[in-house]
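Q: Entry one of two.
A:
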Amino acid sequence: MMQHFPNVGESRLERGRRALAEIDGEAGHKVVAALGDIAPDFATYVLEFPFGDIYSRPGLDVRSREIATIAALAAMGNAT
């Protein structure tokens, strides 16, 4: 499971790459690489924000964070 204690010297991009590798493995890196071919800034954003900031945050492990997300979407009633 992910450590959830960001290294102070580690950039958002580095944290994002590490989180992506742990969550989605090689398949995640292939998706981001393909995205980088057509939209490199968006590929960087995907690594930095959801993976580098959100998934790397301390507090909840990845499984608990994903369960909370599903519960919130289900509670909205109109999430598709």
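Q: Entry two of two.
A:
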Amino acid sequence: DARAAAEHILAMARLGCAVVDIGGQSTRPGHTAISHEEEWRRIRPTLELLRAMRGEGIPLPLISVDTYYPEVAQAALEHGADIINDVTGFAHPDMRRIAAEYGAGCVIMHSGDITGCGDPVSAVREFFARRVEQCVNDGIDRRCICLDCGIGFGKTREQEVELLRRMGECRVEGLPLLAAASRKRVIAHMMGIDLPPHERDEATHATHLTAVKAGADMVRVHDAEGACASLKIE
């Protein structure tokens, strides 16, 4: 429901959220992919409504679209999205071309299996260095790039904990870092209790505070109210 989504986004803006991430499908490992046509069909009504609200002067957070499809990325940017959040780390040359053409913000997530690597921080940092260079060479403004270590993607739980605790060491070229562990399995692992995802919010906030103290600049969450409160206290 586009209207309900827009109201939720307005509520998040009042809480102080700077960015809202919109997605048309799950991107967690093992998910069943849908076509780019279906993904766009799902998110288009919300983006059209948000564009109309902006046209009326209603203040909104920056709008991020979570997609790895170039077709969806381009359509979303044409409909007023500000940022593309790509779980494949802008591996597709068309994603880099489109982002450069529209001057879009880019969330580059570490993708790839590093479960056999000794030091996950070094592996992630080396990936970021290569991909940032590639993106800049393809015309993306370095100032538009944010880095996501890819918690929950191609890593052991122990590696994920290490990345969260050493988040700042993953930084390359002074670029901002995003911590995105909300409700993920690593939270249950750290708790030692396999709670369902919706019961992991309090532990998520504690985990993200650890990441922020370690150097993260932003957090991506489900429970925006709790996250904003915990970060203000910190």
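A: Comment on entry two: Strands lie at 19-23, 62-66, 83-86, 105-109, 145-148, 177-179, 218-219. The radius of gyration is 17 Å.
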